[in-house]
Amino acid sequence: MPDLTKTSTTDKAAAQDEVVAGAAVSATPAPGKPRSLWGDAWRDLRRNPLFVISALLIVVLLLVAAFPGMFTDANPETGDQAKNFLGKPELGHFFQADWFGYDGTGRSIYARVLFGARNSIVVGVGVTLLVTLFGGLVGMLAGYFGGFWDSLLSRITDVFFGIPFLLGSMVVLNGFTDRTVWVVMGALAFLGWTQIARVMRGAVITTKHADYVVAARALGAGTKRILFRHILPNAVAPVIVVATIALGTYIVAESTLSYLGLGLGGGEISWGGDISDGTQFIRNNPHVLLFPAGMLSITVLAFIMMGDAVREALDPKLR
Amino acid sequence: MTITDKTADVPAPRSGEEKSGRLLDVKDLHVEFHTRDGVVKAVNGVNYSVDAGETLAVLGESGSGKSVTAQAVMGILDMPPGKIPQGEILFRGQDMLKMSNEERRKIRGRKIAMIFQDALSSLNPVLSVGYQLGEMFRVHDGLSRKAAKAKSIELMERVKIPAAKERVNDYPHQFSGGMRQRIMIAMALALEPDLIIADEPTTALDVTVQAQVMDLLAELQREYNMGLILITHDLGVVADVADKIAVMYAGRIVETAPVHELYKRPAHPYTRGLLDSIPRLDQKGHELYAIKGLPPNLLKIPSGCAFNPRCPKATDICRTEVPPLVPVTEQDGAELPGRGSACHFWKETIHG
Amino acid sequence: MGRYVARRLLQMIPVFIGTTLLIFLMVNVLPGDPVRALWGDKPPDPAQVAQIKHDRGLDLPLWEQYLHYMKGLFQGDFGNTIAGNRPILDEITQAFPVSMRLAVMAWSFELVVGITLGVFAGIRRGRIVDNTVTLFTLLVISVPIFVVGLLFQLYMGNEWQWITPTVQDSEDMGQLVVPALVLGMVGLAYVARLTRTSIAENRQADYIRTAVAKGLPKQRIITRHLLRNSLIPVVTYLGTDIGTLMGGAVITEGIFNVTGVGNLLFTSLARREGAVIVGIVTVLVLVYLLASLLVDLLYAVLDPRIRYA
User: Fold this and answer.
1) Among C134, C115, C123, C116, CA closest to C199
2) Keywords for this entry (chain A) (predicted)?
3) What is the pTM of this model?
4) Helix then strand then coil, % of chain B, to nearest 5
5) Do C264 and C170 have their domain in common?
6) Would C234 be classed as within a structural domain?
7) Which of B50, B286, B316, C222 is in the most buried spot, having the most CB atoms within 10 Å?
8) Partner-chain residue, chosen from C139, C158, C209, that has the shortest CB–CB distance to A13
9) How confident is the prediction along chain C (309 residues), in pLDDT tens digits per residue?
10) Same domain, C79 and C103
11) B173 lies in a domain?
């Protein structure tokens, strides 16, 4: 007897599978309703409140990072210390200089929070790009070629992975007196690429043995074509998820380093640095610390939530 | 006056009710799944019954609702997303759908047991087979670990696993496919249940092993006088062991018949299509017959007879009216016991 | 089994050498001169600098320095500090027990609380418990650890006075509870998330359906069938996290004034005592490598399908 849906009925409870498979078979030929992993994921995402909230937050944060001056007239760099020393926040004064109060040198915390977004996001995005490109490349080569190259690249990855991330970054940054955005980015990427490399390697190895790749090879497709047309598009999903979440953790790392005094130097505004400055007023004027801390947490939350939502959408096992 | 019912934890047949002795009676069962694409109507009014010692084969393609029905009987449907909006499942006359979870749990394994298709994934990979078999005795009978192990060895011998004593501590992956399925059977048999549901028990096995496993199952069924529901899409398996057959399509039973009558004279075009698509040696060189089209989308079951888009005999009435399962008779009106067909044109199909 | 362990230990050697070499290079190639730092802001005396460098072998080529270092390491000699010329091993053995205690406590939080939360969330996926746990873990992961630490210190220490704002005695376990909680918070959230995902995935497995069909009580299904299979990925995380916790204690130790490895590391960075940093990282790498070996061996216990030949 013909059993049309056999190939898809392996994992899940037979009941649901039978139903879902039955539905899928008849849904595929229906015109105008393409269903793919990404299409399905997008449909899921749009309905996921976590995704919608995080996407909105990220858009706003990107705007703030790009044009902080659009949201305030106050100067984040200088303040009237005599007049505004540790001025309390005026929570009713929306978008005004004194909205979040003033810090120990009389600078508007609202302005500083806005201008701090740029550095945090630039570092986060920059490190993520560097790490994804380099780690992705290493992982792809190790996974695809296997054998000697895999052993070599995996051992190198192990070596870099063995050094605690934060600790290693501290050591690197400690060597620099002029810690610009680029230096911080480089230091974080220097040790951060291992995670993506490992994820990419795993994904490529899994995909490499998939039937459709074997089939493509049997049909005479070349290495380049197999790698870029068949393996990469299918291995990229887990990498995207990990990279999105990692972006959040890189922002945390940058602020942590700045908090420790090893992050951005030379008067660059960083939430971590502002939090560090705020600790001396923590008992009586916690607002100096709480607003940058809150902004930092919201930013990180937005990226991690985004990563989470994408993961759920891309992982059919968790539907 | 107090009557101490010693079998309180196991529902016994209530006096005066359903004295007919039906072991299992499924009545007008509906099952649906609420998914994000809509409501999937997996089972749409199924009726069937099994007596002690009887074998009912439920035949159908994937998506016909045969497994879902069995899982509803067993009480292992995921709810939600599954839902049983309508119907009764009477076990020895008592509706299991009205029982508490605890009552149902005590029936599972002890009174009704199930054998699954893929023994490798259905056995827990990290527990020894002896442990998994012994669990039945430890949980249901309160036996000690040691006594349970002795019983497990006995069970493994009963299903003809060689060197049972040495292998009792082995893990599922250390057994061959056929042996694993024997372990599944042993697990189902452990407490000598009244009814066994076997969901495609031999599909995952090599052809040579299939017959052995099927024979073993049939032999044990006779020995214990159990009812057996055999779910399959393999017409060959059915012919050997079943007493009666129910053919399912799109969540409904489209034909019921004693086993040999069905092969001789099908009364539904779908059954006929299934029979015609078996490759036959005497027709070597001919093109294989296949039922055209695809199984229906359970989100949008065609109106009327669900089979109509694929049926060679479909007419207008088939597209508008759902044919009920009616008794099938001889041309002279003589009764054919146990036969039924859900086709507007059953007469033409069986006699034409 | 014995052969597997031996092979794994052999494989560790290149990673160990590679990691120590890497951190050695990081410390020594980057700018910053520990000898010069002895003078602080005052201009150093070049002759004295050269003399000290010569005495300590710091004028040798880098690879020779590394060989010397490794040779000493195998004899249990981590070298001496530049300032004060104290054996680095002494400093490390003084600081490590404190951090170890803190890390083990934090690790226990991760294990117990993380797994418990994850199991409840995974079993009741999509329900209120699950959503609460998920939201909680998201928040914990998002709020940086130094913010959490400062807030705990502010409220528990200063406002409500449940604890002393800083640890007075690093040997006192009771005082370490809150710092350990702060330290273990992020890991706890990750463990909970991992457990939740793993449980939710395995819950759909065929063998769970079998267990239900066997008529097993729910609690037995969870503890005997579901949990063991689900914990395998969690064990990996927990195994490698103990090293991370010790290294990550810099911030927690700084906030609560615990005199452990983090503290030592931070002061060494300021004084540019590269050898101390290399020593600390060496020990951390050893802890990490041994932990991952243990995890691999634990796998065999948890999953009989894995056999070590």
Assistant:
1) C123
2) Cell membrane, Membrane, Transmembrane, Transmembrane helix, Transport
3) 0.81
4) 35, 25, 40
5) yes
6) yes
7) B50
8) C209
9) 678 888 888 888 888 889 988 888 888 877 666 676 666 667 777 777 777 777 777 777 888 888 888 888 888 787 887 777 788 888 888 888 888 888 899 999 999 999 999 999 988 877 888 889 988 998 888 888 888 888 888 888 777 878 777 777 777 777 888 899 999 998 999 999 999 989 988 888 889 999 999 989 988 999 889 988 888 889 888 888 887 787 778 888 888 888 888 888 888 887 778 888 888 888 888 888 888 888 888 887 788 877 665
10) no
11) yes
CA dist., res. B279 & res. C42, Å (int): 98
From chain A, pick out residues whose CB is under 8 angstroms from the CB of B291. 2
CA distances from A199 to A85, A123, A138, A154 (A): 49, 22, 11, 12
**One domain for residues C56 and C155:** no
Total number of domains in chain C = 2
| One domain for residues C74 and C97 | no
Asked if residue C201 and residue C102 are part of one domain, the reply reads yes
Per the structure, the complete domain to which residue B108 belongs is given by: 24-242
The pLDDT score that the predictor gives to residue B7 is: 41
Q: What is the pLDDT of residues A242-254, one digit of tens each?
A: 898 899 989 999 9
B194 and B319 part of one domain: no
Q: Are residues B205 and B314 in the same domain?
A: no
Q: Which residue in B311, B309, B310, B338 sits closest to B325, CA to CA?
A: B338
Range of the domain at C176: 93-270
Residues C65 and C103 in one domain: no
Whether residue B252 has pLDDT greater than 70:
yes
Q: Same structural domain for residues C141 and C240?
A: yes
Residues of chain B with C-beta less than 8 angstroms from the C-beta of C202: none
For residue C299, the chain B residue with the least C-alpha distance is B126
- Give the whole-angstrom CA distance, residue B101 versus residue A108: 62
Give me the pLDDT at residue A62, please: 92
**CA pair distance A313, B12, nearest whole angstrom:** 48
The answer to whether C286 faces chain B, any CB pair under 8 Å, is no
Q: Is residue B7, in this structure, part of any structural domain at all?
A: no
Query: Do C267 and C197 form a contact (C-beta atoms < 8 A)?
Result: no
Query: Residue C134 in contact with residue C121, Cβ under 8 Å?
Result: yes
In this complex, which of B33, B274, B296 lies closest to A16 when CB atoms are compared? Answer: B33
Interface touch C209/B107, C-beta < 8 Å: no
Whether residue C167 contacts residue C182, with contact meaning beta carbons closer than 8 Å, is answered with no
CATH number assigned to the domain comprising residue C235: 1.10.3720.10
Same domain assignment for residues B77 and B114: yes
- Chain C residues with CB under 8 Å of A160 CB are 22
Q: Residue C279: inside a domain, yes or no?
A: no
Assess if residue B9 is contained within a domain.
no
Whether B237 and B304 map to the same domain: the answer is no
| ipTM score assigned to the predicted complex | 0.83
Residue B313, in any domain of the structure: yes
Per-residue model confidence as pLDDT tens digits over B157-204: 888 888 888 899 999 999 988 889 889 988 988 888 999 998 888 877
Tokens of A315: 């992982």
Are B256 and B224 contained in the same domain?
no
Residue with the two structure tokens 């610009």: A180
C-alpha dihedral sign at A26, A31, A33, A38: positive
Which of helix, strand or coil describes residue C13? helix
Decide the pairing of beta strands B335-341 and B252-258.
antiparallel
